[in-house]
Protein: Malate dehydrogenase
Amino acid sequence: TRTPVNVTVTGAAGQIGYALLFRIASGQLLGADVPVKLRLLEITPALKAAEGTAMELDDCAFPLLQGIDITDDPNVAFSGANVGLLVGARPRTAGMERGDLLAANGGIFGPQGKAINDNAADDIKILVVGNPANTNALIARASAPDVPASRFTAMTRLDHNRALSQLAKKTGAPLTEIRRLTIWGNHSATQYPDIFHAEVAGKNAAEVVNDEKWLAEDFIPTVAKRGAAIIAARGASSAASAANAAIDHVFTWVNGTPDGDWTSAGIVSDGSYGVPEGLISSFPVTAKDGKFEIVQGLDINDFSRSRIDASVQELADERDAVRELGLI
Ligand code: NAX
Structure:
């Protein structure tokens, strides 16, 4: 029998939490043979709701679920944690300036980073989902100097999956025939979904599509603004699809990417592709033996270069802002 993996979920009583926890407990995060213990972190007023979700988890009688702890103390939540899904964040509300938003999230991700530093297991893997995800991950990482930088990642897998679906629709190809798509930059409206290295049934996707107008005026904005479109249609932000992407991200990180393919993840830049070292930016990545690696050697054309640069500039601006606020 395997020892259970401790999975900590913050914002566990929120809507993504509700879509996520049952899939973790059923074995979809790590594998169908990996037992898990859940740690739910919430703010005090939401503890009761988290308890309700825990009751429902009990009622599923998941064979892999070996325990659920609920707490409002990050030190307890991250004690011995092997995987941390940082979902809870402070949303932007009406009249809030960017500085206010970053400061409010600094008050969440700074202490959580420190709690991870002081309490998590040596093999801790962190995925930040809560927005602004890349910069929240940067803040958490800065508060965890003893944890290798490579363990802090931000989620752009939802953007990646959205781009896959849009490309499948446009080309009529099944999703299983599409490979090597990339989301570059920030998980924001400036992100750049890149099909120039993607393949549709073994052929270059940009050549198959052969429609620059669609690329610039339809595909890229549809992917980048999909979150807003979901809110407009559903009256609430993406939840099940975000939870699904978090599952995909961690499953890939742990179990690897298929040969010949890659995925997208926000990881700490080593300076590749002109992205300043230390920024947490989305890249094309492979995963092997529990490590993400940036795919090297891709030719970046002018169309892509300007869009990558614009999104990376936004990340640098966010980094400078949190630096000025003393959060990193
Ligand atoms: P909800 O508002 O439904 O849930 C958030 C939960 O976090 C609440 O239960 C709240 O009590 C809790 N929380 C707040 N501060 C906390 C703290 N300090 N410690 C622990 N828990 C805390 O939001 P939901 O729809 O679940 O979305 C969560 C986050 O995901 C948001 O920041 C959202 O913007 C972000 N998203 C990120 C996506 C991505 O692709 N990276 C896509 C989906 C989503 O928009």
